[in-house]
Design brief:
Layout lengths: L1 H11 L8 H31 L11 H7 L5 H14 L3 H9 L4 H10 L2 H9 L4 H14 L2 H15 L13 E6 L5 E6 L2 H17 L9 H19 L14 E2 L2 H5 L8 E3 L4 E2 L1 H8 L3 E2 L2 E3 L5 E4 L3 E2 L3 H11 L14 E5 L14 E5 H7 L4 E4 L5 E4 L5 E2 L26 E3 L6 E3 L2
Antiparallel strand pairs: 1-2, 3-4, 4-5, 6-9, 7-8, 10-11, 12-13, 13-14, 15-16
Length: 433
């Protein structure tokens, strides 16, 4: 064990910058194989400790509890190690591949989790010899993608009980949502294969439809944005079931003084599900929402409930959609049904609810604009975007270098597409009147 520690110390002391790309990749492959061998030896040792009841030495009943308490393994990981050790006694070829470093701990668990004690008993009752399957699964694990091993092992499990009752896929579905003190939420869901396919198809459709140039979000961030957009689309469609005679919607309560104040106002507003958000975010939601006035008395009871006012009427939204066509933030092409109508000058600060004072922005860029970015429509009808530091976001080469006719001009007030031309005096691209 001391020699093993010495080798690991020597590896940790290597300067990886001295290695070529090929040497780095060779090192990665070697470390994966070594890691597999270490995991195999851990599994073998834990199994021995389980059969000899070594955990009793420290006053614990099982090796699973010892691994959780003494080695600080997660419960699921501790269960995996114990389960794999029990299974490998029945699959010598897989155990040998694991010990040699050619099979991973995750691959061993694919077999151990599907072919447990009950399944091995069923195989014995039906006269099924596990040895050929052991050889075949080891060959797949050593030379094929991980998913192929999953398919092969699951097919074996299904073949053991071909006439069994098809399980109800909805029984295993779970969705849990936990809200944190800052109002953010964390969720986890478990779905059957068909349910998961439906969710992935819906999320992927939005992810692939919104890939603006320069998007540096991670895949996880894009998936999360797509999930929010999917819910936003459903809420906007108005086809969801009603909640106590009211269509489901996002509710935000904010004091009028905070609403009128241009300050950020952290934690000033409350949502319908109890989260606290800033006044700035509440004003962002009000940009394309419905506002209701409620006057409260000194005892905290409502004195007057004012008439609900729709900030952006339907006819103005249709005109904005017709004019803009998609999110106007530079580089974004999110479709109109993903967008809010943003007031260039907030109506609370005197901006009117009109076509001239409106712009289509998707949720992500609507947030950006309410946090320092700025969009503006120039006299020629072209939307332009500025960063918080005042620099403009541009796409492609400078307009001076664009040949005449290289791109369409802006939409004229009549709705016709203007043709570009070059000014003889300045040499700059301009739109035809």
């Amino acid at each position: 064990m001391s020699e093993l520690r010495s080798v690991l110390d020597a590896l940790a002391g290597d300067d990886l910058h001295d290695l070529t790309d090929g040497e780095v990749l060779d090192r990665v492959a070697l470390l994966v194989a070594v890691g597999n061998r270490v995991a195999a030896e851990l599994t073998r040792t834990v199994r021995h400790a389980e059969t000899t009841q070594a955990a009793e030495h420290d006053g614990l009943k099982s090796m699973r509890s010892w691994l959780i308490g003494h080695a600080r393994l997660a419960p699921a990981e501790a269960s995996r190690v114990v389960r794999s050790g029990r299974a490998l006694e029945h699959f010598p070829a897989l155990a040998a591949g694991f010990a040699e470093g050619a099979v991973t701990a995750a691959q061993v668990d694919v077999v151990a989790s599907v072919v447990g004690e009950r399944e091995r008993g069923q195989a014995a009752e039906q006269g099924v010899d596990l040895a050929p399957f052991d050889q075949a699964w080891t060959a797949v694990a050593e030379g094929a993608p991980h998913a192929m091993l999953v398919t092969a092992v699951q097919a074996f499990g299904a073949a053991l009980d071909p006439d069994g009752v098809e399980p109800d896929p909805t029984e295993g579905r779970r969705l849990t949502i936990a809200r944190h003190t800052d109002g953010s939420v964390t969720g986890r869901f478990d779905l059957d294969a068909v349910g998961g396919e439906k969710v992935q198809a819906a999320i992927e459709s939005i992810v692939q439809a919104s890939r603006p140039k320069g998007d540096d979000r991670t895949r996880g961030q894009r998936n999360a944005d797509a999930l929010v957009q999917l819910c936003d689309n459903q809420l906007a469609a108005g086809s969801l079931p009603t909640l106590r005679t009211v269509k489901p919607h996002v509710v935000v309560t904010l004091d009028m003084d905070d609403f009128a104040d241009s300050a950020t106002g952290p934690g000033a507003a409350a949502t319908g599900f109890g989260a606290r958000i800033s006044a700035a975010r509440a004003r962002w939601l009000a940009c394309d929402g419905t506002v209701s006035r409620i006057v409260m008395g000194p005892d905290g009871l409502p004195l007057d409930v004012g008439r609900t006012q729709r900030v952006v009427p339907a006819h103005i939204r249709r005109a904005v959609e017709q004019r803009d066509g998609h999110c106007v933030f530079t580089g974004c092409t999110a479709p109109t049904h993903w967008c809010d109508v943003h007031h260039l000058v907030h109506w609370l600060h005197g901006g009117d609810t009109s076509l001239h004072n409106s712009a289509l922005l998707c949720e992500r860029h609507h947030t950006k604009v309410h946090h320092g970015f700025r969009v503006e429509r120039d006299p020629g009808g072209r939307w332009r975007t500025w960063r918080p530091d005042g620099t403009e976001i541009r796409l492609g080469p400078d307009p001076v270098r664009i040949l005449v006719g290289a791109r369409p001009g802006p939409v004229t007030p009549s709705g016709d597409r203007a043709s570009p031309s070059v000014s003889r005096r300045t040499g700059r691209l301009r739109s035809a009147p």
